[in-house]
């Protein structure tokens, strides 16, 4: 009995080794024709960050999984979809060539863990509606911006009392914990009451329905998603009062990677793939395609 | 890692700790009252009361706290019941903790010898008098330690109030993280701050436990 068990285990182990060998050889067979058919991976100077990523065979990207239009995990396919995902894929193509199947790993990044993820090396880059600002620049570096959002205001349908950000003074305004929207609001409407904050914007929308707050404020692309979902309940004031340049976060001091991504952004602006990515994702929220923002090579 | 971000914001940490203390003390006081009532129901001779007590415990003990928070804060306004985030938090925390206090007190009541209740009834005490004068004083003594665990659990559970925008200790840490982009330093500060609250509570509870213990 004992002997038989050991034999069985031995057989299983031998089989799995065989299978593993088969697996790797078949992968090689699959890979070669596709790399010859399309643009192959470019060569990078040895020791550069791009070279390291190419050798590793994977670009690990931190992105949001719950942000409609930018990074949203599709519950049926399990794939993350959105503008941030498209941008990350376009960057990956610059490293691996046009065939990036299985070479981009998306890791869920929420507002709180973006900096630690970059610092620890959990991710290579963060593309996650990540606003470039001075505080964040102290701990991470940014390539881009690749998009400029504007902070705007959402109110109940039919509410005409709020026409601009200054009208929010003395009113209860909701935004999300961990975003920069609250600070921006305080700068423009110092007496706005911001005691109500939640972890997600959908709760702010609920608080607006319940009359706990009179307005919700954050980036227009996010509010656009909420309004699009419930057109009969909410409306966008359309009074933008900030510029929110979305950048690509990377490790502080990784200048080669930053320059590479900036060059890559310029290239995808020029060849139209940025526009295509935008129109296949963000345009669904009803936003007109803007001209891409100039890259800031600070 | 620099901890200066914590020392620069001691005032805000202090304020957050104070809100946590308020939530805990108010929540526990209410939970204690709820727990006694629930335990009394569960040992009462009246079947509907026993059923009500059991239902209460089974509902609130078996639902995650955050679910109760969201349902109470966002659901009840649809029924016309609306409280501020702070008051809502105290209510939800005490309703939830009350179920656990109830079970703990009931366990304490079971440690009191049956003969005492029979003796009390035979000298003409009503059920309420019997609980109040004879059983509860003895029952509570034997459950100081588990009640203390519930108290410390409540200190930590109160952090969920942040999900409905009460800026207690965790909330302060979360907001500072946004402002400074230094989560490790900020949450290390919160780590220490929670210990400052919970370790002395444990110590005080130890003293209470020794004071009220049966002299054997």
Detailed description of the structure:
The complex is a heterodimer of chains A (about 300) and B (about 220). Residues about 25-40 of chain A have low confidence and may be disordered. Chain A has helices at about 1-35, 50-55, 85-95, 115-120, 135, 180-190, 200-210, 220-230, 255-270, 275-280, and strands at about 60-65, 65, 70-75, 80, 105-110, 125-130, 140-150, 150-155, 175, 195-200, 215-220, 235, 245-250. Chain A is α/β, with parallel strands linked by helices and about 300 residues long. Chain A is globular, with a radius of gyration of 23 Å. Chain A has two domains: about 50-150 and about 245-285, D-Maltodextrin-Binding Protein, domain 2; about 150-235, Periplasmic binding protein-like II (D-Maltodextrin-Binding Protein, domain 2, 3-Layer(aba) Sandwich), CATH 3.40.190. In chain A, the strands form three sheets. In chain A, strands 5-1-6-13-7 form a five-stranded mixed β-sheet. In chain A, strands 10-9-11-8-12 form a five-stranded mixed β-sheet, with helices on both faces. A three-stranded antiparallel β-sheet of chain A has the order 2-3-4. In chain A, helix 3 runs antiparallel to helix 10. Chain A has ten helices and 13 strands. Chain B has helices at about 5, 10-45, 45-60, 65-75, 85-110, 115-120, 125-140, 145-155, 170-180, 185-210. In chain B, helix 5 runs antiparallel to helix 8. Chain B has a domain at about 20-165: Orthogonal Bundle (MetI-like fold), CATH 1.10.3720. The longest helix of chain B is centred in the N-terminal third of the chain and has 34 residues, at about 10-45. Chain B is mainly alpha-helical. The interface of A and B includes residues 179 and 211 of A.
């Amino acid at each position: 009995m004992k002997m038989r068990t050991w034999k069985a285990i031995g057989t299983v182990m031998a089989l799995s080794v065989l299978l593993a060998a088969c697996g790797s050889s078949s992968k090689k067979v699959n890979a070669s024709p596709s790399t010859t058919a399309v643009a192959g991976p470019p060569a990078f100077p040895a020791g550069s960050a791009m070279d390291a990523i190419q050798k590793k065979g994977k670009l690990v990207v931190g992105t949001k999984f719950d942000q409609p239009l930018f990074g949203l995990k599709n519950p049926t396919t399990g794939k993350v979809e959105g503008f941030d995902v498209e941008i990350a894929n376009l960057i990956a193509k610059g490293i691996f060539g046009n065939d990036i199947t299985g070479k981009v790993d998306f890791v869920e990044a929420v507002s709180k863990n973006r900096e630690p993820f970059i610092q620890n090396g959990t991710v290579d880059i963060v593309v996650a509606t990540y606003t470039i600002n001075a505080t964040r620049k102290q701990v991470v570096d940014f390539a881009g911006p690749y998009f400029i959002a504007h902070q705007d205001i959402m109110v109940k349908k039919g509410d005409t009392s709020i026409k601009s950000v200054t009208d929010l003074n003395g009113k209860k305004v909701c935004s999300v914990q961990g975003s920069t929207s609250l600070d921006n609001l305080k700068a423009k409407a110092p007496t706005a009451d911001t005691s109500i904050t939640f972890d997600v914007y959908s709760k702010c929308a609920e608080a607006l329905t319940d009359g706990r707050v009179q307005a919700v404020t954050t980036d227009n692309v996010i509010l656009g998603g909420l309004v699009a979902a419930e057109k009969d309940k909410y409306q966008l004031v359309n009074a933008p009062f900030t510029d929110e340049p979305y950048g690509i976060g990377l490790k502080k001091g990784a200048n080669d990677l930053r320059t590479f991504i900036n060059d890559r952004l310029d290239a995808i602006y020029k060849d139209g793939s940025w526009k295509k990515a935008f129109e296949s994702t963000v345009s669904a929220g009803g936003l007109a395609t803007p001209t891409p923002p100039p890259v800031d090579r600070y | 890692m620099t901890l200066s971000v914590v020392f620069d914001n001691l005032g805000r940490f202090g304020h957050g700790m104070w809100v946590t203390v308020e939530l805990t003390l108010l929540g526990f006081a209410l939970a204690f009252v709820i727990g006694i009532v629930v335990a009394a129901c569960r040992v009462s001779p009246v079947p509907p009361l026993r059923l009500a007590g059991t239902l209460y415990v089974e509902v609130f003990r078996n639902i995650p706290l955050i679910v109760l928070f969201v349902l109470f804060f966002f659901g009840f306004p649809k029924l016309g019941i609306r409280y501020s985030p702070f008051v809502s938090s105290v209510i939800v925390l005490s309703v939830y903790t009350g179920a656990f206090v109830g079970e703990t007190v009931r366990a304490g009541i079971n440690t009191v010898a049956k003969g005492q209740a029979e003796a009390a009834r035979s000298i003409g005490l009503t059920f309420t008098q019997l609980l109040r004068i004879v059983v509860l004083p003895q029952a509570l003594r034997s459950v100081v330690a588990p009640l203390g665990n519930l108290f410390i659990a409540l200190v930590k559970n109160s952090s969920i109030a942040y999900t409905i925008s009460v800026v207690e200790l965790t909330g302060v840490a979360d907001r500072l993280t946004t402002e400074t982009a230094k989560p490790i330093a900020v949450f290390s500060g919160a780590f220490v701050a929670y210990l400052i609250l919970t370790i002395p509570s444990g110590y005080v509870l130890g003293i209470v436990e020794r004071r009220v213990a049966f002299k054997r």
